[in-house]
Amino acid sequence: MWLLAVDTSSKESSVALLRDAQLVAAVAPRSEEQHSVQLFRSIQQTLAQANLPLAGVDVYAVANGPGAFTALRVGLTVVKGLAEMHEKPVVAVSVLEAVAAGAAAEGLLVPIVDAYRGQIFGGVYEKRDGRLAARGRERVMTMEEFLASLAQDGVRPEACAFVSPQMSRWASVLAAGPYGAAAREGVSPALAEAVARCATPKLARGETLDALRLEANYVRRSDAELLWKKK
């Protein structure tokens, strides 16, 4: 089975292709081009590495958030269009789950990604023998608020590991705060392979969507929604 995974949740975009759960090809361009410009090229390059036509893809996986609104919409729109055109199922994967999946550490993992505006997206996952399970809801708040919420939930510093594609940005803040004793691990910002890895067991469990039911997991409402609510 061929699985094509797409991630456009941040400034870094990537595409990965798996066959029967084995990585066959991946493209992660380091480019200033907008995702809407480069994504189709990345998909074509990935498929070309495997000499696979687009119609040969059996299932799509996509990071559906949380992340940058515009960037997320590009990946979701492309995957929705391709899946609908070829009548293929889609697996939606949380960005925070993919970040946790990309870590070498196991146990209680705390993935965090930049939410901008002085905030982070964060969550808690438990990873055992490579298997991930969410422990609570995903959140958007300041780092200080997030750490306080972890303490309220009973997450002990010595029993967890923080994981992030932007760990260099958060390392000093974490080291100086109440979770200074917690382990920290940086992961690649190219998340498509991790998205594919997360999608594989979901696919086996039948956790797929048709293109029309695929939606973004923003966690935070968009500016347009917030402005509309104020009127």
List keywords for this structure.
231 residues, alpha/beta, disordered C terminus, five-stranded mixed beta sheet, 7 helices, Nucleotidyltransferase, domain 5, 35% helix, seven-stranded mixed beta sheet, 2 domains
Can you give a write-up of this model?
- The protein is built from seven helices and twelve strands.
- The protein is globular and about 50 Å long.
- With 231 residues, the chain is an alpha/beta fold.
- The protein has helices at residues 35-50, 69-86, 95-101, 143-152, 167-176, 192-204, 223-230; strands spanning 2-7, 14-19, 22-27, 59-63, 90-93, 107-116, 119-122, 125-128, 131-134, 139-141, 160-164, 183-186.
- Helix content is 35%, strand content 26%.
- It folds into two domains: 2-95 and 190-230, Nucleotidyltransferase, domain 5 (2-Layer Sandwich), CATH 3.30.420; 103-186, ATPase, nucleotide binding domain (Nucleotidyltransferase, domain 5, 2-Layer Sandwich), CATH 3.30.420.
- The strands form two sheets. Strands 6, 7, 8, 9, 10, 11 and 12 form a seven-stranded mixed sheet that branches. A five-stranded mixed sheet has the order 3-2-1-4-5, with helices on both faces.
